[in-house]
Write a structure and sequence with these properties.
It contains 11 helices and 12 strands. It has helices spanning 3-12, 19-33, 48-61, 66-80, 87-105, 111-133, 214-222, 257-270, 291-300, 323-330, 344-356, and strands at 140-151, 155-162, 174-179, 183-191, 201-207, 228-235, 248-253, 276-282, 304-310, 319-320, 337-342, 364-368. The model has no long low-confidence stretch (mean pLDDT 93). Bound molecules: flavin-adenine dinucleotide and protoporphyrin IX containing FE. Residues 37, 40-42, 45, 48, 51-52, 55-56, 59, 76, 80, 83, 85, 89-90, 93, 124-125, 128, 186-187 line the site of protoporphyrin IX containing FE (HEM).
Amino acid sequence: MDDFARLLKESWTLVEEHRERLSGHFYARLFLLDPELRKLFPVEMTGQGDRILEAIVTAAQTVGDPESFDEYLRSLGRDHRKYHVEATHYETMGVALLDALRSIAGDGWNLEYDQAWRDAYAAITEKMLAGAAADDNPPFWHAEVLTHERYGRDTAVLTCRALQHPLSWRAGQYVSLEVPRHLPRVWRTYSVANAPNGDNVLEFHVRTPAGAGWVSGALVRRVKPGDLLRVAAPMGSMTLDRASERDILCVAGGVGLAPIKALVEELASYNRTRWVHVFYGARAAADLYGLAGLQELVAAHPWLSVTPACSEDPDFDGERGDVSEVVSRYGPWTAHDCYVSGSARMVRATLRVLAGDGVPPENTRYDTFGNL
Ligand SMILES: Cc1cc2nc3c(=O)[nH]c(=O)nc-3n(C[C@H](O)[C@H](O)[C@H](O)COP(=O)(O)OP(=O)(O)OC[C@H]3O[C@@H](n4cnc5c(N)ncnc54)[C@H](O)[C@@H]3O)c2cc1C
Ligand code: HEM
């Protein structure tokens, strides 16, 4: 370990047991230095605050290994434009960070530690600002809700049109959404459920847990046609490999159907030669909100087939069991390109099946809607 990394690690041991105090001090100092900055953050800040501090600390400790963090910090900086963060804010945050570290570490802190953290923070800032400056797109798009359809209590399919500027995304990517009217400054990521089109229209499939879920709750229960959303830059690499000639397996759980539907729509624009098999799972038949749409695509494209599956519906007239189990019954999938999307539990189980079939990891792309 070089000297710089040693200093950062050593000094971090002085504060890591006191993260809650560190975080409290950091934000108190930040908002005292510049009270205007409080307006950038959500009204309710529990939990989120630590994510920023954790990210700074993790980034600081990998400054010595620029390869691994360069791209992450650049895209984080690009993405931070949606929070209205400006270059001078980084300086203020740096002061608050150093101040919090010094106060919480107490007597153990020294000048060498101080310099190491200042250098690390400056390196992070430089990368984030470079990422922000290199992006020609607006920080976010305003988008007007065009349609909103409810499926049961918890699910909605909505479309919106991005106004002002063209928004380009690739099938399989996701964007951040904000519902400014109901939840200003709170952003969450949602997969785009349609392939790119000339109309700037994006479709989303949203499910909210019963009685919970800030942004998903607003998107499912409160948003109406005519409302404005904000949409930030598309991200994610669950995209099609157009050069590949392998057949394709898609596995979707619940609203994990969104990016899979976008991929199938994009394939519909050029594919003639690759067989595409979609497995679509939910608890009960009534939750398979996207099945009719998929069946229309099947009727139009001979290379496409769809197998729905229900895990908790004894009356379902089709495959029963978790979608990962159903996928394993139809395998092996060794020679396929595989796309998996859904809850962490469903994705984990499906990846296990694919690993068991010997699918090379580079032929599998996935998105989880929670921590894997
Ligand atoms: C790459 C990616 C793509 C995604 N795509 C989609 C998509 O297409 N569609 C989609 O619907 N989601 C998608 N998600 C998930 C989405 O980003 C949000 O995480 C999800 O909507 C929950 O955010 P929220 O603000 O509604 O919930 P939050 O309020 O942030 O709550 C998060 C979770 O905490 C739990 N929780 C919160 N409050 C309570 C409470 N009072 N009681 C019990 N539990 C509680 C709930 O389980 C809830 O899901 C995606 C996530 C990722 C990472
Ligand atoms: C310098 C390094 C910084 C790092 C490593 C960093 C990291 C992060 C991370 C990881 C998140 C969570 C993003 C997500 O979940 O998608 C976040 C959110 C955020 N950051 Fe930063 N950030 C930095 C600087 C700043 C600065 C200077 C400001 C402005 C003062 C700022 C304001 C915000 C805001 C407002 C949020 C959203 C908070 C929320 O939703 O609760 N960040 N940051």
